[in-house]
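quick one before i forget lol
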Amino acid sequence: MVDAATSSRVALVTGANRGIGRAIAAGLAERGLTALLTARDPSQGEAAAAGLRDKGLSVAAHQLDVTDQASVDRVAAWVEKAYGRLDVLVNNAGAYYDEDQAALTADLRIVQAAFDVNVLGPWRMCEALIPLMRRHHYGRVVNVSSGSGAFAEAGAGTPAYSVSKAGLNMLTVKLAAELRGTGILVNAVCPGWVRTRMGGRAAPRSPEQGADTPIWLATLPADGPTGGFFRDRRRIPW
């Protein structure tokens, strides 16, 4: 059931033209939020949004490259002008799952590119859009991370991806600490191994299953957790 407060809220999801991002955007829209679906390719973003609008959901699309500050600024200006608020930010866009690399011999150009997408991308988005949340003393920030970035689960392999996701986890902790008491909750999530372009067809989880915990974190009540790392709606070690 959708209440009046939820129906007035606006959520932005990065990397939302397919996979987990699209499932998160759809799930939030199904719960009554206006979902802003962003993608690097504007035609793919609009196609995904149109498919959800055909189901009667409140969804809009905008081009976004999280590695481009000008692109981030354009999205922030659009959100402010068109909606005057932002209540939920889901930093879902991610890249460079480098299974073919080892830490000792990694191509540092790939590492740098992974950091630009997986750490600096969410950081740019938070700096640009959290000020809109502060206006209403309400916000939910969800950083889509990975167990690959957890020290508790770390092993060899995927160095660029894993180290950058560990950086995203630390960013989550820092933002949550700075925003404590403001009404803005910031958490990280591991969606599990999901059947996406990155996860592959052998993954056991559907995009909708992977989206469940991000959606839960995006709609937490005022007394919900902040500064945590979650999988299957349960806190997991960093």
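fyi The chain has seven helices and eight strands.
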